[in-house]
Specification:
By secondary structure, the protein is mostly helical. The chain is built from 4 helices and no strands.
């Protein structure tokens, strides 16, 4: 599911609400061992655009 998330999120990044919704879904889908990689990837790609959404979504997930 990690690769699927990497395809979906760039496609919905034009909309703040849609990005948040899909990000939360992806966090639930991504396997636990891949969550750290996914979090880092999200911050690398969307950290400048949606830092507050990422901070809230990844609260409690180690970096």
């Amino acid at each position: 599911m990690l690769e699927y998330a990497k395809v979906i999120l760039p496609k919905v990044s034009f909309s703040r609400q849609l990005f948040r919704k899909e990000l939360l879904k992806c966090i639930n889908w991504v396997e636990a061992p891949d969550l750290k990689k996914f979090k880092n990837w999200c911050y690398e790609n969307f950290g400048d655009m949606y830092p507050e959404i990422l901070d809230r979504a990844f609260t409690g997930i180690p970096s």
